[in-house]
Amino acid sequence: MEYLLLFVVAYLAATVSASVGFGGALIFLPILANIVGIKEAVPVLTVAQIFGNASRFWFGRHELQWKPILYFLAGSIPFAILSSSLYSGLNADWVFKLVGGFLVLVVVYRHLNVAKKVELGNPGMVLGGTLTGFLSGLTGSAGPTGALFFLGLNLPPVAYVASDAFASLVLHLTKIVVYSKYSLVTTKGLLVGTFAGVAMIGGSYTGKLLLSRISKEKFLMVVEGLIVVFGLQMMFLA
């Protein structure tokens, strides 16, 4: 019964992620931790997210924005390697809280008049990748951290979700290599992650269908609202 629950929650989590670009991992992680244990949950989540992100990027592959993706990865990959190496012995609660506060402040900043005069540019994408990679390696998910920076590029919804998903896919593949080096991915964990990942492929397709039916204005409103909610969750529930 618990694996049926795991499959259903993984499907729903992937639907959310494919619809708004993030959120699925934070929904899925608590259920996963109850089944495999908190220590193994992060590597297993990473395995599952490889399937989820691969399918999200594939469904929107024709709208990928390569330049911001490459700058984002320039920051995320080295810091994902660093934080994944530290995962076994570091308490990441304080990092999670700081990043949560940062997300809320940036959404507020986006709605100030001065924010309209500021462009993220390439350095902003490197910074976004750095924060995302470091937090993701420690906790299994950076929440909406990376999504916020891709959102700042004012991309169409499908391009935003697909580009963020591709960057996340490369990030998770990097983490798996590091986790494997430190024997943090067990055979059981690999099987459970793959099982959940299959459900995430279906959820990604459902989310893509939902994404095609929403206007850019409503999409931005929903995404920013969820970023604030998840940011507050990171601040007070970590």
Describe it:
- It is a multi-pass membrane protein.
- It comes from Hymenobacter montanus.
- InterPro entries: TM_pro_TauE-like, TSUP.
- With 238 residues, the chain is mainly α.
- Helices cover 80% and strands 0% of the residues.
- The protein has helices spanning 2-20, 24-36, 38-59, 66-86, 93-110, 121-139, 145-151, 157-181, 187-211, 216-237.
- Helix 1 runs antiparallel to helix 2.
- It starts with a helix and ends with a helix.
- Mean pLDDT is 80; it is low at 114-118.
Order of helices and strands: HHHHHHHHHH
Query: In total, how many beta strands?
Result: 0
User: Domains counted in the coordinates: how many?
Assistant: 1
Low-pLDDT residue spans: 114-118
Biggest beta sheet summary? none
Global structural class = mainly alpha
Amount of helix: over 70%
Helix count equals 10
Rg from C-alpha positions?
16 Å
Distance between the termini: 28 Å
Mean pLDDT, all residues: 80
Strand-residue proportion:
under 5%
Shape: globular
Transmembrane segments: 69-88, 94-112, 124-152, 158-178, 190-207, 219-237
Organism: Hymenobacter montanus
Subcellular location: Cell membrane
Protein name: Probable membrane transporter protein
Describe the structure concisely for a colleague.
The chain has helices spanning 2-20, 24-36, 38-59, 66-86, 93-110, 121-139, 145-151, 157-181, 187-211, 216-237.
